[in-house]
Queue: 2 jobs
Job 1
Amino acid sequence: MSYVVAGGGLGGLAVAHYLAKLPTTRKILILEASSRMGGWVQTSTMNDGVYFEHGPRTVRPVGPAGHNTLNLIQELGLDQDVLPISRPHPIITKRLIYADGTLCELPSNLTSALRTLPPFKRPIATCLWNDIRAPAKICEDDTLFEFVSRRLGADIAQNLIDPMTRGICAGDARQISAAAFVAGPLFRMEQESGGIVKHLLKNSFFQEKSVLEESEESDLVQRAKSEKWGVWSLKGGLETFTQKWSQVLEKQGVEIRRDSKISDLRSNKKGEELQVIMENDEVFECDHLFLTIPAFVSSRLFDKLDPNLSNILNNIPFVDVGVVNLEFEGRVTDIEAFGFLVPSNQPVRILGTTFDTCAFPQGNKTIFTVMMGGKWFQELFGENPSPDSLGEIALSELRHIMNIQEQPNRVMVKIHRKCIAQYIVGHKQQVQLARERVRSHGYPLSLVGSSYDGAGVNDVIMSGKQQVLAVFE
Ligand SMILES: Cc1cc2nc3c(=O)[nH]c(=O)nc-3n(C[C@H](O)[C@H](O)[C@H](O)COP(=O)(O)OP(=O)(O)OC[C@H]3O[C@@H](n4cnc5c(N)ncnc54)[C@H](O)[C@@H]3O)c2cc1C
């Protein structure tokens, strides 16, 4: 069988990787529009060895998807390059929220959860009492904000879930789906048992382990478990991963074409055969096509072929994010933490900041990454802000919040257009609808990646694996 994989981000690499393992695979071709592989995994390395992450910076090692990625890292021979961070490192235990002019530490253990800590108005543990008393709302989906307000209280929704949503997907918890986003398991607990606490009590004695979790445990997964890793990255940044992965795939015979933008799809009348049309009019045929490009790009490819599918895919919105890396000489703050997030009700023009060198030191430098915009990008910065203007805003907010007086050595600004899919209420149904339409029309293609099955590095790799397996079910 011959396969075309559209897109060379994590999703495309994952698809090629799992296809290459199948005995029936004859040919795999990855078509990547840009000149580099990796998609949003982007690391810039300077002449003096300092590096900045412009996309993902840390990966979580837990759960089946986290273990799957660690297995992969070992398989690629990158285990010696892993930089793990374990408890009680402050980047795991210390998470900050900037509210009412102060950096507030989130409770990280039972003792702190029993105290009233700003910006919360009650001890955070009392939200469990709220959950026990609150009636359930049986529904297919709800906004994350409504769901958490109902179950755990408005205080938690505003001061914890709202900033976390901005940190994870640069989105608005008042629009994001409770069923599709990271709170999905909690939402299902309400639907199945009427509440989170009730569900945990009912099921605590009958915990089933995931089959995947039990079956695949590389040495690296065992190390992560025994050393209690909280997050990990790689020496030289996460692009080490996608670069190495591309090299290994090419060695295995996968053909990678960079600077190769797909501009259209054609099919025979029955839709069973697809032709992939390139911007330079070249045409590729294959037995199956994996679309790992963003949903709004796939939507354009279906404009003529299937306007209905095109509309469904176009219903998944995306947001722009400004990513500003700031490098200072020496240590410019005593605060050791993962970073801080800003709730949407604060008069601050940034979403949050990660303290990169607190996690992964780089000589005598302090490096921060400021995230900006997301759902609020146009409203705050207009359609076309200059990178310099975003850099200045990021620096001035950081000076104000962290009281930093020093001048940065370097400021690097990237404006990532339409970089994060927003899983708004009804997302799961939209994805189901799109996949159902593909199936019912017999299109030989699969929809893969961060537009559909989860926004994190682990989710995207898992999406690639599962969609490859689904073709052969
Ligand atoms: C700023 C930022 C920070 C993040 N931080 C984290 C983090 O800390 N931890 C974490 O787990 N996750 C993080 N993520 C999420 C994670 O990086 C992404 O979900 C993941 O990289 C997306 O991979 P993908 O393959 O689905 O999509 P993409 O990376 O978008 O890859 C799609 C590829 O398709 C190509 N393409 C597009 N159109 C065409 C076309 N017409 N023809 C051919 N090719 C095309 C693109 O050039 C691109 O290379 C972050 C994301 C961003 C943007």
Job 2
Amino acid sequence: MTRCGKAGSGENYREQALKMFPWVCGRCAREFSGKQLRELTVHHKDHNHDNNPPDGSNWELLCIYCHDNEHQRYLEADAHGPAGKSSEPAATYKAFAGLAHMLKDT
Ligand SMILES: [Zn+2]
Ligand SMILES: [Zn+2]
């Protein structure tokens, strides 16, 4: 009985979001009904699929095309962004390695 609870909850947010929001794409404003509803997907605003607040504040209904677009932009931003960011942990790591080395020498 209990295995239905958490295991299925991953898909549950879509049902919830569809109940909560009008069936309209948040980008292109296309309206959906019936079978077309399959093309309406739930996007997570912070791109964290585990973040599903019951008030729906992290959800946005997007059609599959706009959803694709949204993630494309995110990936591009991601590809440009980390170049500066990723040097930080490396620098920290080096500093730490240097410290270890110094400790060894003493
Ligand atoms: Zn759309
Ligand atoms: Zn998404």
